[in-house]
Amino acid sequence: MCGESSRHEALCAACDAELPRALGALCRCCGLPVPGEGLCGRCLRRPPAFDATHAPLVYAGAVRAMVLALKHGRGFALVDWFAQALLCSLPEPQADCVLPMPLHPARLASRGFNQAAELARRYARGVGLPCRLQDVVRRVDTPKLAGLRQQERKRAVRGSFVCRQDFSGQRIIVVDDVMTSGATLAELAATLKASGASAVTNLVVARTLRLPSR
User: Fold this and answer.
1) Which of 40, 46, 125, 142 has the fewest CB atoms in 10 Å of its CB?
2) What is the DSSP string of 66-93?
3) 213 pLDDT higher than 60
4) Which fold has domain 19-207?
5) Is pLDDT above 60 for 193?
6) Strand runs labelled E in 9-160
7) Alpha carbons 98 and 115: distance in angstroms, whole number
8) Which of 52-66, 79-93, 141-155, 194-208 comes out lowest in average pLDDT?
9) pLDDT per residue over 70-118, tens digit each?
10) Which of 53, 58, 55 minimizes the C-alpha distance to 30?
11) Entry pTM
């Protein structure tokens, strides 16, 4: 970030210390700030299909630049650093398997790799859980959700995923790079629950702290 030597680390100590981190009281379901403990009003009124969200970083400033560099292939060396952040955020998960956010085949062909799969592989290896890379497919290449209202995002991702395996009784950790509105993660969680999953936890590198308007 600053151009100074960081030796064998992705970031020097000074830049690492300045990264926006997800601290304070956060909703245990969606990861947004709450005035106290427990669930936010939104999750109380309309519980999403997922059960919990963990995010070590806030999607802003240098973190946003780093995530975008990874997403577009310029910052692939950051994968290990991000995976370590995930391991520190949820070191002893109560789960049966890890699943990356699937990428549509057309998007995968264009990008060349799925950054969520790379993160999920490393996280799963670190916690000793199986990584289910091929058990859910994305059948709809959804448009970019930036700029859409919350309800528009939900409609855009509806029916996007298909399970190839039965997940009956499975507690699943879904790994992704960024959580914004949570619409895509909620749709994936609903698909997994429909296939029998007993619990779905989101584990993302970074979380935006503001939702799009309704």
Assistant:
1) 46
2) HHHHHHTTS-GGGHHHHHHHHHHHSSS-
3) no
4) Rossmann fold (3.40.50)
5) yes
6) 52-54, 57-58, 97-100, 136-138
7) 14
8) 141-155
9) 888 777 888 999 999 999 999 999 999 999 999 988 888 888 889 999 9
10) 53
11) 0.91
Handedness of CA 141, 118, 110, 59 (dihedral sign): positive
Taking the C-alpha atoms of residue 91 and residue 142, their distance in angstroms, rounded to an integer, is 32
Rounded (5°) CA angle 187-57-200: 30
pLDDT at 168 over 80: yes
DSSP 3-state of 2: coil
Terminal C-alpha separation, the chain: 35
**Residue listed under structure tokens 């939104």:** 42
The pair of structure tokens assigned to 29 is 């379901």
28 to 47, 114, 142, 144, 148: CA distances (angstroms): 12, 27, 28, 27, 25
Task: Record the tokens describing residue 184, joined without a space.
Answer: 């895509």
Question: Please, which pLDDT band fits residue 6 given cuts at 50, 70 and 90?
Answer: confident
Q: Two tokens at 57?
A: 């970083």
Domain boundaries, the chain: 19-207
Among residues 195, 151, 189, 154, the alpha carbon closest in space to that of 173 is found at 189
CB-based contacts of 150-158 (< 8 A; 24+ apart in sequence):
150/181, 150/183, 150/211, 150/212, 150/213, 150/214, 151/214, 153/181, 153/183, 153/184, 153/212, 154/183, 154/186, 154/187, 156/183, 157/183, 157/184, 157/187, 158/187
